[in-house]
Amino acid sequence: MKRLIYCTFLLLLFSPGLQSDEIPVESYSSQPQKTELDFIQQWVSYLLGSADGASARYGEGLPFSFNCGERSCRDWIKIENAKIDSADWQQDGTRLHTLVWHDKASGLVCSMELTEFKNFPAFQWLVRIKNESDTNSENIHDFCATDITWNAEGDVMPILHRAVGSPGCEDDFQLRSEIMHASMWNKSRSIFMNSHTNNEWGSANSYLIPSDKRSSAVWLPFFNYQTGSDGLVTGLGWSASWNADFVHTGNGKSTIKSGPGNFHSYLKPGESIRSPLNLVLYWQGEMMHGQNMFRKLVLEHYTPKIHGKMVEPPVSGLVWGGVPSKEHLEIIEKIQEYKIPLDVYWFDAGWYGTGVVPSYTVFEGDWGPMAGDWRPNPNWHNGTLKPVSDAAHAAGMKFLVWVEPCRAIQGRPITLERPELFYGHRGDETRTEGETLLLDLGKSDSLQWAIDVVSNLVEQYDIDWYEEDFNIEPNPYLEARDEQGRTGMNEMRFVEGHFKFWDTLLEKFPNLAILNCASGGRRIDLESIRRGQPLWRSDYNCFPEATPESTQDQSFNISYWLPIQGSMIRGWLIFDTYEARSALSPGAENGLVAKTDEEWKQIKKNVEMQKACKKYFYGDFYPLTNTQRSHKSWMAYHLYLPEEKKGMILAMRRDQSDVSAMTFDLLTIDPETSWTFRDYDTGETQTVSGQEIREKGYEIVIPERRSSRLIFYSREE
């Protein structure tokens, strides 16, 4: 059976009346259009007081708001009375403007750090509020770090595109597109993402953690708000609780609000707070064009750099840290024997403490109660990781070590020696043996302890990649300690302390790379991903029952938003080519507990394939199928590097699919030239005219179920 698909589901759904061969590739690519850049430049100029507002599209005033007592900040924070300091353009293509306002009545000083991007139709901002009076301020509340009125051109129905976060389920990162009306008779609709609404949504969807307030535990903090033929992509940088409201009042008129999810507090004299980082990107034409510009913006401006260059996500070999050092050394010898070209040797959890039961996976041993004792286990590693580190480096790999400094178990030495560094969950000093504690990063002593612990490990064991995990929901601990009238202040200090922790490490070790993990991908936001790469995107993949098809869906959906992420499937097992392609990502991981010659050869095969594909994830993303959560469907997408005129197609025929061939329209193909396609498995090539592909489509045949095709293509010069 053959099936013809001439675009993705979203392209068809949201581009009625347009045929794919009438649309140039630029309409979907990451290349900004001049009209988009001009629109944002005009908006920025308006915010800086040097241009009139385009009030037909965005509302008047600044894009944030808050109240102090019963008084709105908009009574005294206005564009015309801002003191503005504008810096020069930087080498990275950004320019910072700082806007400052003083209010004599309250003693508050507010500043807005506005950053514009030379090559993107986008700007970001961060708001700070300080009490410069000698008395406590009234309560700061209704802190909307983003507060925008957005009007469509004409009476169109907006559509909100958003994605599930990483609750550790098979549908992590699933894209959801929702029309902004409550019914066919009512054109208004509100979509709220706050604790109460998330709880209701989580219960309705049988999620166990809807109350988790880590930044991407329930929803990714990235949104595409489509208003007909254009829209806004918005994003947040805040690694704790946040709220977002999208309200359509009818006739295409909407408000977009977001901010910290748990703040209602007065400020003491000299005290200051900050907002989440906020981003707006404007796009015209096709929804996927907005997604691809956002991906490219993330790649260039929200991805960690070392000496000005992007940190390359590694293809890793992963071994559980509870495996004795002797066996680690044997594994590294096998890596050398089979000439497996791994970038990183990943030394995961379980290596620390004084446990006496070895662990080869997350489900074994007594490593869990050891959290907080970050010394190599003398029973497995003779009290040092140096032999394994040295062997990994000698084999040409970098060395990655897992640490979780913000969690400790009561009874570990540090919890007895320095109990003041940690919070118990009761909100008082009462603690019981084995209780999970939270490091108080809002306290300078606790922050310094974490810096010292990780710094010592990096220095002693020549660690190249520091993986930080965070398997604890901090809000119950932080909220239990809030003072009267100071709701959210502990959370504010904890978030600020965590950002400072990472920044201090990166300043102290300029060659260090950070892997950002939090029970999988529950800490994905703009502030976090620009410091650490989310290379373990979901804890769903810890479990042997994880299916390749669910991992395919996760790979497919997260690619709408992030060019860099990583995964493996089915825990630490060795997987075949079909499974490896299901988890294909720029930061792919491979389990290394191999026992046979065949398994070692499969690992090498997977690694070579992953390295051949990695660079394509930095390009534009084009979904080719739309059916999800079904074993009877195909999953297919392609990636394209516009500068190199090269692309990659991945097509997966699932285990119950009766379809043996599909034909796709490849929007990246220029009909005026010829293109060469190479099958990765067979090496066979074919050259086809672009005109033929755009008229008839490109057919992919997969004769067998549970199989795949990986194809690279390039333009003939």
Short description:
By secondary structure, the chain is of the alpha+beta class. Residues 1-23 have low confidence and may be disordered.
Explain what you see:
- This protein has 16 helices and 39 strands.
- It is an alpha+beta fold and 717 residues long.
- The strands form 9 sheets. Strands 4, 5, 6, 7, 10, 11, 13, 14, 18 and 19 form a 10-stranded antiparallel beta sheet that branches. A 6-stranded parallel beta sheet has the order 30-28-24-23-22-31. A 6-stranded antiparallel beta sheet has the order 32-33-34-39-36-37.
- A hairpin with a 2-residue loop joins strand 15 and strand 16.
- The longest helix has 20 residues.
- The two termini are 35 Å apart.
Write the SSE topology.
Layout: E1 2-5, H1 9-13, H2 34-47, E2 65-68, E3 71-72, E4 83-86, E5 94-103, E6 108-117, E7 122-131, E8 140-144, E9 146-151, E10 159-163, E11 175-179, E12 189-193, H3 195-204, E13 222-227, E14 230-237, E15 242-250, E16 253-260, E17 264-265, E18 272-274, E19 277-284, H4 287-301, E20 305-306, E21 309-310, E22 316-319, H5 325-337, E23 344-347, H6 378-381, H7 386-394, E24 398-403, E25 407-409, H8 413-417, E26 422-423, E27 436-439, H9 444-461, E28 465-468, H10 475-480, E29 486-487, H11 489-508, E30 513-516, H12 526-529, H13 548-558, H14 577-582, E31 589-591, H15 597-613, E32 620-623, E33 634-641, E34 646-653, E35 661-664, E36 674-679, E37 685-689, H16 690-696, E38 698-701, E39 707-715
Parallel strand pairs: 1-35, 22-23, 22-31, 23-24, 24-28, 28-30
Antiparallel strand pairs: 2-3, 2-8, 4-5, 5-6, 6-7, 7-18, 7-19, 9-16, 10-11, 10-13, 12-15, 13-14, 14-19, 15-16, 17-29, 20-21, 25-27, 26-27, 32-33, 33-34, 34-39, 35-38, 36-37, 36-39
Helix pairs in contact: 5-7, 9-11
